[in-house]
Amino acid sequence: LSVSELVQSSFDRINTVDDKVKAFMTLNEEGAMQAAKALDGKLGTEEARGLLFGLPVGVKDNIVTKGLRTTASSQLLGNFEPLHNATVVERLNAAETITVGKLNMDEFAMGSSNENSGFYSTRNPWNTDYVPGGSSGGSAASVAAGEVFFSLGSDTGGSIRQPAAFCGVVGLKPTYGLVSRFGLIAFASSLDQIGPITNTVEDNAYLLQSIAGYDKMDSTSANVDLPDYLSSLTGDVKGLRIAVPKEYLAEGVDEDVKNNVLQALKKLEELGASWEEVSLPHSKYAVATYYLLSSSEASANLARFDGVRYGVRAEAENLLDLYKKTRSEGFGDEVKRRIMLGTFALSSGYYDAYYKKAQKVRTLIKNDFEKVFEDYDVIIGPTTPTPAFKVGEKIDNPLTMYANDILTIPVNLAGVPAISVPCGLSNGLPVGLQIIGKHFDERTVYRVAHAFE
Ligand code: GLN
Description:
alpha/beta; eleven-stranded mixed sheet; 14 helices; globular; binds glutamine; nucleotide-binding; transferase activity
């Protein structure tokens, strides 16, 4: 099989299924076929050195790609062609993957169902009446539908893990600082991380190996030695200590989901691990804390979309009018809701009561995790309280939509890594198991996920 043939088969699959799944925003057919041809010449020679040589990849549309339209699924960026690549894209190029196209998402990564895309909603390949999750819905659906070998997503409060759970694939949110955010269109900079979405844990480790590591272009990039993730996939979990937070199997978590997680824990026990119930007492404040902090950061980050620097510009009489019209026409309702909430929380007179208070609670949530990790190697629970929900079911009630992220959000607030791996079905839809690790301990997370898989 030549690289061209492999990449062509990816486009064939997209042509067959994507009018139903709608995972892609933009296809890179010409660029991809050209790149594939260049690699064909290296096939079978010493020159074929890339770790992911010739494999078709999809990239979430909030990760900038030079000369390839990047919209973050916002009408405001409907015509935006970046002048440079994100660091992760440069690293994919160095690993010799082929970028097949850009993947649909909730606008600026705000959402849990893909219904907030400014263009169209991606559907769940398992059943197209259901949402694929979000915000990296296109990234998860494209892998689940067999359109690409793997993809990149981003996760601010669950946006890699929740769609991975809903679509029955593997998604990792790395430790904050492990993967460069340079070229990621920022939502909430203190929480955002790019990560891999794949069919298997092994593929996931390969993709992380290729994109992780220090980058001087990202001031929050961690200058740590990059471990070998692949060698952690030993299948051995003997003596491993697992913590199961009682808050993660509490009220609101579907019976079926709970039973699947308990089954998974049983399997890990049979493999020689042990588990105990623990408490993360401040979990109940996580959703409120997250929406305050993430919206505050978003209101500042999204100020740059003013009709002057990027994307679409509205017709206007004067500068103020230009800002107003561009932003009111370009942003969707959810984005406007967050900007208003964030601007309010940061305004003088309210800052101490909201933003500063939320920062303090964030520290308490982080401390909860640190305390548990003194005695345990990993924390395990469900990725989401329920399997995928129906298209339209939650879109009119932002609070029920937000509540879906209750089990993923604390992880971003703490900055630790977590993976979602498939752990069974409920009414024909996938359920995700979440494995949370210590800072920079992706190796243990992978080891457990791989042993369980
Ligand atoms: N669903 C959450 C939100 O709407 C998380 C999104 C994300 O992780 N980017 O903010």
